[in-house]
Amino acid sequence: MGSRDDEYDYLFKVVLIGDSGVGKSNLLSRFTRNEFNLESKSTIGVEFATRSIQVEGKTVKAQIWDTAGQERYRAITSAYYRGAVGALLVYDIAKHVTYENVERWLKELRDHADQNIVIMLVGNKSDLRHLRAVPTDEAKIYAEKNQLSFIETSALDSTNVEAAFTNILTEIYKSVSNKHVGSDRMVPLPSSGVDITSSTNENQKKQCSVSKNPRTQIPNLLFMAHCLVFERTGTSSSCILL
């Protein structure tokens, strides 16, 4: 019998992108596990976690990928854009250079992801008001110019973290619902693809395997069959591409 987490109506892949150190991993852990780590280390390769929410009476399961921001990992992160229907483009409001690099991340995203991907610009670390280097209005104007939604968050004190993920998942859901009426674009329902599973033995290396279970399949993630999970905790896993 499947767990409650396996029961969902929609499965959406969402990626977190942006420079290293902007707080992507803590946004992920705050939303999926309500945790924050002041000593969070830079992500190596990719980490992903899941959480389900209710949107208009439907259970939407988000599979959220935290891709490494360091240059030395950029060659492999492009693979993780495949199948993504949403993206949170994160910068640090206290470090203007991370905002300057948003343009480069946005170009990479649009070069590798589906052209209709839903994108939200996220100014993280809003708790650092005294160190603010990026004016809110400036980021809002940029987001409007590039047809992005916008929000400021703090993974430290939880400000707007729930709202950020809920808003983007709701926007994705509405986009998918509209596709049901006459659009031939891909509908990210759990009807095709692969499911990445592993043995129940926790905290040890394990090879991902491919499941044929149609109820828990993940669309367009065939490359994940070559992913090595080296840590798994609750709803999250860390892996690198072999």
Automatic annotation (TrEMBL):
GO terms for cellular component: recycling endosome membrane. Its main location: membrane. The keyword Membrane applies. GO terms for molecular function: GTP binding; GTPase activity. It is a lipid-anchor. Pfam families: Ras (PF00071). InterPro entries: P-loop_NTPase (IPR027417), Rab_GTPases_membrane_traffic (IPR050209), Small_GTP-bd (IPR005225), Small_GTPase (IPR001806). It is found in: Recycling endosome membrane. Keywords: GTP-binding, Lipoprotein, Membrane, Nucleotide-binding, Prenylation. This is Uncharacterized protein. It comes from Cylicocyclus nassatus.
